[in-house]
Every structure is written in structure tokens, then in C-alpha cells.
Amino acid sequence: MRLLLIEDDQRLSDALINIFEDNSYSVDTAYDGENGQDLAETGIHDVIILDRMLPLKDGLQVLKELRSKNIKTPVLLLTAKDTIEDKVEGLDTGADDYLIKPFSTKELLARIRALSRRQPEQLQPDILKAGSLSLDIYRCEASNRNGVIRLTYKEAQLLELFMRKKGQVISKEHILDKVWGMSSDVEMNNIEIYIHYLRKKLNPEACGIQIETIRNVGYCLKED
What we know:
Blueprint lengths: L1 E5 L3 H13 L3 E5 L2 H8 L6 E5 L7 H10 L6 E5 L4 H10 L3 E4 L4 H12 L1 E2 L2 E2 L3 E4 L2 E4 L4 E4 L2 E4 L2 H12 L5 E2 H9 L7 H14 L2 H4 L1 E6 L3 E6 L1
Parallel strand pairs: 1-2, 1-3, 3-4, 4-5
Antiparallel strand pairs: 6-7, 8-9, 9-10, 10-11, 12-14, 13-14
Helix pairs in contact: 2-3, 6-7, 6-8
Keywords: DNA-binding, Phosphoprotein, Transcription, Transcription regulation, Two-component regulatory system
GO cellular component, one term: protein-DNA complex
Organism: Ruminiclostridium cellobioparum subsp. termitidis CT1112
């Protein structure tokens, strides 16, 4: 799962990045409203954590413009403003949730988990299924009729992406942005290497799925 953190306090941002990565989240960061909005508009993130007070562009203005462009990614608004009026303003602007600074790590993670299950008009489960295969996102474990398959973090992220978009062709560029992040310097052939590892672990007969290569485009997970 990929998060976008838009927070101008460097120390807080660094602390949050460590918390998120320790809990198996990938995270992209921005330190001002303009850059944050540019990243948010890519649509590759599962949850946006947005500070209200930002340089260059206020967090509420960022949120308002995202919603006006039909960007529906769940947004958790972080702020030191704690009046009822401030909360109402944030929620009415388009925030999905509101968390007051200072906050506990447990509550922050719980709210992110709740928001990550939200998708427009549907819920995102923590256990994904395709063919005869089930994926437990948070344990980085897949299972089929033969038992449990242990996955690395990146393998689990890749499989999650394929299972959420099963039957759809996914470009290498989208995979790179979604799994490794927009600022990553990872090369395209790393994707091929990780998909090779994933295919070796996922026996098509036991799992009932195949990850097909779509030449010159990307990959597609298909159910048998």
C-alpha cells in the first residue's frame, strides 16, 4: 500500500516515514502544498495524509482542488486546529477524516487502515482473492490449496497490485510508481526480476492464476 504524506515539518515528516515503513507501508513525501498536489493528482496513492498549514498552498486549498478534479483518494487531514468549526470546515472541503496534533501512533495507523479500506462505492478488503489464491496484505503471505507462500515485502506489493486490478493490463511505468515510488531510481528491469521471483512462487495449477506479459506494454493477472 502506498501513502502520500504532505507535511512541511521535517522532523515530524521523518518520524512518520519511519513509522509507516516499519508498518509495511510505502510512502512518498512532499513538503509544500504545490508539490503535494502534483503528487496527489497522479492517483497512484491509497491514502493521502495532508497537513492543513503548508507553505506555497494551504492544505484546504489543495484538498479543494483535488476534489474539484475528481481525485477521490481518501484524505486524512492533520492539523493543530481543534475547534468544531475547523473540523467541520475540513470535512466539508472533502477530507475523509481529521486528526488533531499531537496524536498517538496507534490512532494514526488505525485511521489509515480504516481509510485504506475505502474506495469509491466499495470496500477494499485486507484479504484479496484471485483464482485459488488468497493474499493477506499485512502478513505478506499468500495461500493456496497446497499451503502458505511466504512473500517478500516487494513481492507482496506487486501481487496486491495485480490482484486489485486482475484482468487489467498494468504498464511497467504504473508498477514502478505504485510499488517503488515516483522518486525511486530503480530501473525497469527490476520489475522483470521481481515478477520472475513471484512467478516461481505462484504455481499456476495450485493458484489458478497467471501473470501474463503483454509485450511492449506491461503485465496482466488472469484467472484460469
